[in-house]
């Protein structure tokens, strides 16, 4: 019998194991997890840890990062590993803005609204008699240990990990409820939103139909669900890749209750866009990749203490701000967009994305490499091309859009000026922009507090017209055009 010593938060945890095994396997069985944006293929380096003892020789990628990758290192005897402390936990967006609803809540005394994001899970508990929020909690989605994106999760589920993925999200929600409120105020009813794949995994439904063309979901929900010991409602999705989170975000925005043309963008790993025009809701999704979440970036990280979240030029030199004003440890999504915009302004990055030098230094030990700039170009091209395609399909122009609603954790901290500078958002839109915070969670809370809103959710979903970008010649052309940095919207 061998023993792995896990150091975390200043404490040592002893984990016995019998035979040679992958470090990841041992950690997961013991309840520890690390992010694997690359799906555990050893490419991203985000699961790098300090490891010593009876372990396999490092591979080329591990030698490059100077640490061992938990998805690659094999232990065959006593060993010690040091994991990141919880003090570097992510700042997850739970702000939902001011919500005014007429109380006609779902049955129960206390209820929770839950948003299962691809990267994070956020929860709010309400007193259903008063409508008051009495507790909030959030965490990294534990499924990120399998893959950073939806397709990676689908692949994992089809590879025999469906039950594991279901257990992970279920246990995370249960833990967040215990963290948010005391035992006597635990929720007895839930409203749970998320994209289509996240709801599939929550329900333990095989997502095979979402893995290949024509990408037709077997269910779009708008159903009741039996969460362990608690009744729950799952709002309607609009398409296999335009989920209930966007339906709820549209509800929270109120855009379908107004005559004006408006646009809603949830910019993240999965970029989802909705355009309201003349009584029709045009929706689409585009795979932006995890760059906006800091994943796949050489010095990227989530919204943790020490993450560079703002970058600007002063007297021709780059200036930075970090979360909690701590020593810089990496750059998160908002800082990444700022950095590329500042580099573009200073001439250190040209419109093709080429770096003037080998890297763009942001702080000691934190710099952007050429491949990082390319990742931003790919992500921003996908979002910008998606917006343009939706506008052209609806026969309208950006000048006709009265309000651009920006939702989601990344969007809540996005510098709109920087986004325009690199061409992620159209030029001149800043005066018409409204940041909604976690609108998916806000819309879910509305349904929890007033179940009559279920009818409005169904109406919104019924108004939707999905614009498929796969194999779409218009989108492909605009995607190539938007690879250049700068703004030609």
Topology:
Blueprint lengths: L1 E7 L2 E7 L3 E2 H7 L18 E8 L4 H6 L2 E2 L4 E9 L27 E7 L3 E8 L4 E9 L9 H31 L8 E6 L1 H8 L17 E7 L2 E7 L7 H10 L8 E5 L3 E8 L2 E8 L19 E8 L2 E6 L7 E2 L1 H14 L12 E5 L2 E4 H24 L9 E5 H5 L3 H7 L10 E5 L1 H11 L3 H11 E3 L6 H9 L8
Would you give an account of this structure?
- This protein has helices spanning 23-29, 60-65, 150-180, 196-203, 244-253, 333-346, 370-393, 408-412, 416-422, 439-449, 453-463, 473-481; strands spanning 2-8, 11-17, 21-22, 48-55, 68-69, 74-82, 110-116, 120-127, 132-140, 189-194, 221-227, 230-236, 262-266, 270-277, 280-287, 307-314, 317-322, 330-331, 359-363, 366-369, 403-407, 433-437, 464-466.
- The chain is of the alpha/beta class and 489 residues long.
- Among the domains are: 2-84, Ubiquitin-like (UB roll), CATH 3.10.20.30; 110-249, Domain of unknown function (DUF4445) (Nucleotidyltransferase, domain 5), CATH 3.30.420.
- Strands 1, 2, 3, 4, 5 and 6 form a six-stranded mixed β-sheet that branches. Strands 9-8-7-10-12-11 form a six-stranded mixed β-sheet, with helices on both faces. A six-stranded mixed β-sheet has the order 22-21-13-14-15-23, sandwiched between helices.
- Strand 14 and strand 15 (280-287) form a beta hairpin.
- It starts with a strand and ends in an 8-residue tail after the last helix.
- 51% of the residues are buried.
């Amino acid at each position: 019998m061998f023993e792995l010593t896990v150091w975390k938060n200043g404490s040592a945890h002893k984990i016995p194991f019998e035979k040679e095994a992958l470090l990841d396997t041992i950690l997961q069985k013991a309840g520890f997890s690390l992010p694997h944006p690359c799906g555990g293929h050893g490419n991203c380096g985000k699961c790098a840890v300090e490891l010593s003892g009876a372990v396999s020789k490092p591979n080329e990628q591990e030698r490059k990062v100077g640490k061992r990758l938990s998805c690659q290192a094999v232990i065959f005897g006593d060993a010690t590993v040091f994991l990141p402390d919880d003090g570097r936990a992510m700042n997850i967006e739970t702000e939902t803005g001011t919500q005014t609803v007429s109380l006609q809540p779902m049955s129960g005394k206390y209820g929770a609204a839950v948003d299962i994001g691809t990267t994070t899970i956020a929860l709010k508990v309400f007193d259903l008699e008063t409508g008051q929020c009495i507790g909030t909690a959030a965490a990294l989605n534990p499924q990120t240990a399998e893959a950073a994106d939806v397709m990676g999760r689908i692949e994992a589920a089809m590879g025999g990990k469906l039950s594991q993925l279901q257990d992970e999200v279920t246990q995370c929600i249960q833990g967040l409820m215990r963290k948010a409120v005391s035992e006597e105020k635990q929720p007895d009813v839930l409203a749970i939103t998320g994209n289509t794949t996240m709801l599939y995994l929550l329900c333990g439904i095989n997502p095979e139909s979402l893995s290949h063309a024509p990408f037709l979901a077997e269910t779009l929900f708008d159903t009741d669900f039996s969460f362990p010991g608690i009744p729950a409602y799952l709002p309607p999705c609009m398409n296999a890749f335009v989920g209930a989170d966007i339906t709820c975000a549209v509800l929270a925005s109120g855009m379908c209750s107004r005559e004006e043309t408006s646009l809603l963008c949830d910019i993240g790993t999965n970029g989802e866009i909705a355009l309201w025009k003349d009584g029709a809701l045009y929706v689409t999704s585009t795979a932006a990749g995890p760059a906006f979440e800091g994943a796949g970036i050489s010095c990227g990280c989530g919204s943790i203490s020490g993450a560079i979240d703002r970058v600007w030029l002063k007297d021709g030199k780059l200036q930075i701000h970090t979360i909690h004003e701590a020593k810089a440890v990496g750059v998160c999504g908002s800082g990444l967009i700022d950095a590329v915009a500042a580099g573009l302004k200073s001439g250190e990055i040209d419109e093709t994305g080429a770096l003037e030098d080998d890297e763009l230094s942001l702080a000691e030990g934190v710099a952007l490499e050429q491949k990082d700039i390319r990742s931003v170009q790919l992500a921003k091209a996908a979002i910008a091309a998606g917006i343009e395609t939706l506008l052209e399909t609806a026969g309208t122009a950006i000048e006709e859009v009265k309000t651009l609603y920006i939702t989601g954790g990344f969007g809540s901290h996005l510098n709109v000026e920087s986004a325009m500078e690199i061409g992620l958002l159209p030029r001149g839109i800043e005066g018409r922009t409204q940041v909604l915070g976690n609108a998916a969670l806000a819309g879910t809370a509305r349904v929890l507090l007033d179940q009559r809103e279920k009818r409005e959710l169904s109406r919104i979903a019924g108004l939707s017209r999905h614009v498929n970008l796969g194999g779409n010649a218009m989108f492909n052309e605009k995607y190539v055009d938007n690879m250049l940095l700068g703004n030609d919207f």
